[in-house]
Amino acid sequence: MKNNLLLVALLYTAVTYGQFGNVVSQPSESKKANVIRIYIDREGAIYPLKDNIIKKEGFTIGKFRDGYGGIDVANLEAYYKYYQQTDFTKVCVDYGVNDFVGLQRVLLKDYQEKIIETIQRLHAKNLILLIHGFNDATPDTNYETFEDKADALIGISNVYLEVHWDGLINQTHNPIKFLDIWKRAQRNSANTAITLRNVISHIQIDNMYIVTHSLGASVGTRLLFNVYNWEIKKNNPNSIDAQEIYTRAETTPTPTQPNVILAMIAPAIPGQSTFEGLRNTVPIHKSDNYKKIVIGFNKHDYALNKGNIRGVRLILRERFGSSSLGASKRDLRVTKKIIAKHKPPIDVLETDFSSDRVVKKTEHGFEFYLRREHFNSFLVNTFITK
């Protein structure tokens, strides 16, 4: 039987925090034989695992400028430049490299080989890639819950790839600073997606499932196709940083596995302007292998509705990008029409969580959706329904 690749996009991180709410990962390997963890920084660089202890303070020293004119901190390259004679020298010895570029090449190859070896060793049918969203630094318990529920439904022959990315952390009560953090998280999602394309590009397997929560949908969609919408348009599309992201995205191949399925829980993205780029694959118009899209919808979701105050929603959507796909019936309807134009057809399935209403400020976290009675329907739509 041919193996299946199951990319379930939901993300987890063992963390401390840097400036601007950056996540500073402290990588660790899972004790479970069927779980692989990958840690990715805000620039898309992969963290090394061998004896790697990241000093939180090192991430506040970098002096590179980012695409928004601020000081770029909380990235591995800046950290290792500062700790060149200590931390980086040891990492170079551990991995047999001389520079940061060489380290990234070795790490990328190591992950590709480990994924393939684990699938073969366990005779696994599915590789499940998990991707979290914004402001979700420690979803390890949620990951384990998801894995248990998926195993119960589709069997235990699964390998999980837990993706840990810098979705940023809201450490402020200042709404202006909060929105600046959100804007940067959108940018980080693009870099993460490009790295994931490279990780899976050499994995020959039939079926790939990408399941995301919240802003993880930005990672998942950008993994599949190039998106030219909200955050870069709204925030200086001509900046050096934006153009560099565009260039890498346009030269990094998108998935070629025969059957690709995307499943999003409470997607914090604009549906219309995102899926208008569905055919922007690399190479262009090579999306015939995209078979199904599942959308977990909740019209009551407090975060997606930006506080549920109409005037505030409109202002925030215009300035920082819509997060409407997971909560707006209109955006969902328009998005379905856009996807329906795709040839060959892509099935679109909806799981409506709206009837499971509890205290409104809890209605967005990954744990909230895992506990809902409709979550099993979401799993069935993703893994069972044809």
Please characterize this protein's 3D structure.
With 386 residues, the chain is α/β, with parallel strands linked by helices. It has one domain. It is built from 13 helices and 11 strands. The strands form 3 sheets. Strands 3-7-6-8-9-10-11 form a 7-stranded parallel β-sheet, with helices on both faces. α4 (140-154) packs across α13 (375-383) and α5 (175-200) runs parallel beside α6. It is globular and about 55 Å long. Residues 9-19 and 61-71 have low confidence and may be disordered.
Quick overview:
By secondary structure, the protein is an alpha/beta fold. It is built from 13 helices and 11 strands.
Q: Give the number of domains.
A: 1
Q: Which strands sit side by side, in order, in the main sheet?
A: 3-7-6-8-9-10-11
Distance between the termini: 19 Å
Radius of gyration over C-alpha positions, nearest whole angstrom = 20 Å
Q: SSE order, as H and E? A: EEEEEHHHEHEHEHHHEHEHHEHH
How helical, in percent, are the residues?
25-40%
